[in-house]
Amino acid sequence: MINMIRRAGLAVALPIALFAGWYVLSAGSENFYAPPLSKILTAFGDTWTADRLRADVAPSLLRLVAGYLLAALIGVGAGVAIGLSRRLRATTEPVLEFFRAIPPPVLVPVIMLFAGIGNGMKVTVIVFGCVWPILLNTVEGVRAVDGVVLDTARSYGVNGTARITHVVLPAAGPQIAAGLRQALSIAIILMVISEMFAASNGLGFTIVQFQRSFAIPEMWSGIILLGLLGFLLSLLFRLAERRVLRWYEGLRAAQRAG
Predict the structure, then answer these.
(1) What is the predicted pLDDT for the residue at 50?
(2) Crossing angle of helices 169-197 and 246-257, rounded to 10°
(3) Sequence-distant (≥ 6) Cβ neighbours of residue 146 within 8 angstroms
(4) Nearest to residue 4, comparing CAs of 230, 242, 252, 258?
(5) Whose CA is closest to 184, among 249, 126, 111?
(6) pLDDT of 144-189, one tens digit each?
(7) C-alpha–C-alpha distance, residues 57 and 50, integer Å
(8) What stretches of 116-168 show up as alpha helix (H) in DSSP?
(9) Whose CA is closest to 137, among 96, 88, 167?
(10) 95-119 pLDDT, tens per residue?
């Protein structure tokens, strides 16, 4: 319990120190584009009301969740298939490397031609950017599964779906979780970028509207809100990861103790 409190204290100490430094250093600022933090915090309370959160933040989160979950399903499913088949891996590797090298924001205009400017386009952009770290980490995790473990499962008649769900996925779980963690930060970035192109709501759209109308404190308040959302999503992911990979956390703790 004491260790948990200590870790929590260390986690919040740096953000608090940074905000305190920002508050003090910006207190006398007269720069129009860098207002005092006190003014930004006042704008934060006035801007992000319940109605604004429901109208702009909720749609952004729904798009992010939809795109992230679709990318996870595609990435893990395809990654397991490619990781288990040497022939399939050799066939798809050049194509995967080609598409992975394309920055998702560059494809936004192309995706708009086919998916329009609605939610489908924004979700597609998130899926395209998030699927690669999940897919590639899943492939590497499946490839790294101990051959002895696979042979043992085969000798006991554990084949097909049971082999994947009870042997392959748990063994590759830490690597898959690493890909999912990388994809989460990418999803937040692409959520904002997709809403900056053609949208009528969303957090990215609202921040750009504040910038274009020279509502600078409100713009900064939106950036702070975006950072807070990223922090909360990361925290939720970490809690879920620890719950799913309890055996792995226990193994690492035992190794450290030994």
Answers:
(1) 93
(2) 110
(3) 171
(4) 242
(5) 126
(6) 888 888 878 888 787 788 888 888 888 899 999 999 999 999 999 9
(7) 10
(8) 119-143, 147-155, 160-163
(9) 96
(10) 888 888 888 778 778 888 787 778 8
Q: Tell which residue, 235, 209, 193, has the closest CA to residue 64.
A: 193
CB contact at 8 A, 172 and 181: no
Sign of the alpha-carbon dihedral angle for 225, 228, 232, 234: positive
CA 231 centroid distance within chain: 10
Dist CA 254 CA 133 (whole Å): 29
**190 close to 125: Cβ distance less than 8 angstroms:** yes
How far apart CA 59 and CA 207 sit, in angstroms, is: 14
* Residue 115 vs residues 121, 154, 228: alpha-carbon distances, Å: 5, 45, 30
Chain centre distance of CA 35: 30
Q: What is the CATH number of domain 36-43+50-257?
A: 1.10.3720.10
Question: Cα(144)–Cα(40) distance, rounded to whole angstroms?
Answer: 49
Task: Return the minimum-mean-pLDDT range out of 40-49, 193-202, 206-215.
Answer: 193-202
Write out the DSSP string of 184-218. HHHHHHHHHHHHHHS-SSSHHHHHHHHHHTT-HHH
What CA–CA distances, in Å, run from 74 to 9, 54, 180, 231? 37, 29, 12, 25
Rounded CA separation 104/193 (Å): 10
